[in-house]
Amino acid sequence: MKKLIILDDVFDASTVAKIAGFDYGEGEKWYELGANPIHERILDLCARHFDLGAIVGYEMWRNSGNPGWHVDKDERLFRERKEYRYPQCSAVYYADVGEVSGGEFFTDDLRYFPRTNRLVMFSPGLYHGVSAFSGRRFAVSLNPWNHRITS
User: Fold this and answer.
1) Chain segment 57-93, per-residue pLDDT in tens
2) Bridge partners, 59 (sequence order)
3) Of 70, 73, 81, 147, whose CB count within 10 A is highest?
């Protein structure tokens, strides 16, 4: 059974500011466990709902667009062999949402609006998307993996 969990007001103001102020660069990046204790607080929350006991690291990126329908997967494996391999779970953390129009997170039957300090966590293999938006919407995506991937 697929899970989708939404938590509001998950971090104190200092943690929110550190997540929002981090330089994410471009695209997905791989992080070994212990590389970023502030972001790993997101993993701690995910571990309450998903089995993260064997993860070796995570990929993380700033989600500044609207990717439309997709599933989080090992993109390289899919590109090279058309095989699906999923992270242990997926998480989207909204560090800063201001005046925004659109930007909803959606699945087949659910739709959630972005909100500052909101964490959305969901099961592997869940098709989802983000609608087009305008305004200020700073979201961070994080996928923990049981094996090293090349982003």
Assistant:
1) 999 999 877 677 899 999 999 999 999 999 999 999 9
2) 30, 143
3) 73
> Which residues pair with residue 137 across a beta bridge?
97
Threshold 0.85, pTM exceeds: yes
DSSP summary character for residue 35? S
Tokens of 112: 């959630």
Residue 14's CB is within 10 A of a number of other CB atoms, namely 9
Reduced to 3 states (helix: H, G, I; strand: E, B; else coil), residue 77 is helix
Tell me the CA distances in angstroms from 63 to 55, 103, 106, 137, one per residue in order. Answer: 22, 11, 15, 9
